[in-house]
Structure prediction request, 444 residues.
Amino acid sequence: MKSTSPPASSGLALDPDIPICQTDLPLGWYQDELRPYAEEYLALPDRKPATVLGWMDRYVKPARAHFGDSLLLLAHFYMGGEIVKLVENYGGAVADSYKLALQAAQNPEKKVIVESAVHFMAESIAILAADDQEVWITNPKAGCTMEMLAKDHMVLPIADQLIERYGDELVVVAYMNTSGRLKALAGRTAGAVCTSSNAHLVVEWARRDGRKVLFVPDQHLGRNTAHRLGMDPGRIVTLPDPQLRGGNFPLTDATIEGGMQALDRAEMILWGSFCGVHTIFNAEQVKWWQERDWQVLIHPESPIEAVNQADGVGSTDFLWSAVQNAKAGAKIAIGTEGHFVRNARELGKQRGVEVMHLAEIPGMQSGGCGCATMSRNDPPHLAGLLDLLRKGEAPKLNRVLAGDAVDEVTGDLDRLKIEERKTLIRDAKSALQAMIDVTEQANS
Prediction:
């Protein structure tokens, strides 16, 4: 596997006088094994870093000493509160979903990988991990609303109908925000995984020989990618909103906008899912900031009207780098997840750069919404899991294996049998490797 640049430091540090920005979760939200750690955390007198780190040190430092260089801590840019800073404080790395997925494969000496992010990210790491590497997630119920609207039991019945109708003409591009079961679907159709940073490269590659693309799950990223590639909007079909129809419905003139004729003509078929955090953005918000001489940067999971009006569009890595590299005096309004923007604002202050959330406009829709499911990872989840791993008592549910499906509400685990998992890994790894090859070739 080709190498890529390692995750860079966020450049953020914990201020000892400012309380950690992390909403306390109800005690009932914790697994039984982690509840004692949550009880201790909730009983702390305050949330200042000195207090929280003093408590976490009791568990994290012995775990780091026990595992030594074989331990790797990871977090995503979108993590709620100060988890990004806490993970880095203990020697961990923070990155976007693309770089996170590569961490196990690029660090073979790391045998115990603990991720504070969402389940599909940890599963992507597990798919590319070696047999002697274990991947763990601090909270297995940490999910993604977009992915929850594109479960395999919803998508596969539709994909089967499309494959029956179009055969090898159909290729699936699965956004990183999907389960391993859908990444395996992409592999079975000689397709690929993509991220928001490389979607245009992957879709352009997937369209080779005139193949028809099924893009799963985010309709907005798919539509923005098609626009970037100059595709005809009249040849893009969006499947029905999965909130209304679920996924197991027949493809007929009655269920497809424009009917089956439109489906047959389509160059790209979009699954109807979306990210609730990014759909709040619109062109009017973008114009409001631009009229006041702010630069507007936005994530491509946002509606196309807002994206086309913005000054720049890109992944979390693109957005973070824009703040890191901005000149003093710059003013940047960012359209993405609220926790990310708050951390970017802090980074900007260090550089004399003003940063605001795109939706934070007086008299307009309230903005700053963070990813609620990702915020389910918090200090007691991190400290507790590391302590339990050191003791050899970590819950089975927190181990992440390729093909795992975890109910974000109940925590119920559906784990594949070994032979099924091997097949899934083969297919999903093929899709991930296709993405890596396309991306690295473009960057070389």
